[in-house]
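Q: Could you fold this chain for me?
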Amino acid sequence: MGKNIAISSSVKKQFDLTGKSAVITGGAGFLGLQFSETIAEMGGKPILLDFDSKLLQTAKKNLNECGFNNHSQHKIDITDEDKFQELINNIWEINEGIDILINSAGLTKSAIENNNIDFFANFENTNQELWDQGLKLNLTSTQISCKIIGSKMAANGSGSIINVASDVGTISPNQNIYKPDNYGYTGVDFNTPAFYAVSKAGVIHLTKFLATYWGKDNVRVNCISPAGVYKDHDSDFVKKISEQIPMGRMALPNEFKGAIAFLSSDASSFVTGHNLLIDGGRTIW
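A: Sure. Below is the predicted structure, expressed as structure tokens.
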């Protein structure tokens, strides 16, 4: 049977994260905050890492208002490996380890608004600075945090890593949902940039690589791949993309909480290397 690993026969106890600490990169972001609430609700301690100090303060206030008091926030550029290593060493010491790592940091349009870069330019007009930043923040930052935290987990003999990928890391973005059609749809002024799809595909394969690399060290590495999440989108766009999804709608922000609770906990104790598509069935068509 290999290592002596005890898993409770109680499902409730399997999902319980009491005493567990979870580092969440991009923890103050749109989905990162949902993940933080999940960890806290299940009894764990969310440790939010983000580059945006204002968002961190908002996240702190939100967690407190929800009745969660056991959490911490840290401003950090996770692509700065030396500073990230120093911070993680401190977090590890204070919390006597890190049990869960959720990598949800990524490049958003708001992060480059002052750079005069067309975030949604056609592929032929891709700004190479944007391409490089996208790969660095979406893929390389995940690799760095896995390397630093995952290595500590492996040496300690346990841990769960959850990387956040995307359905467009598995399938290509459907360009038709952004463009006008012959039936009255006028299109939208945004799209899915190539760097996003490519970097998320990389996250999925990095997940598989690390699952095999650290499997015998009892470090599980999985990822979730959300489809489009509703966030005040144009109603015509919502209708257009919903036609591509068997369930006929976009995801709600809180519909990933169950997956995070499952993959973070002993409920998924024999699950590793898995890419959980949470897409309303979009990728099966």
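A (continued): The mean pLDDT is 96.
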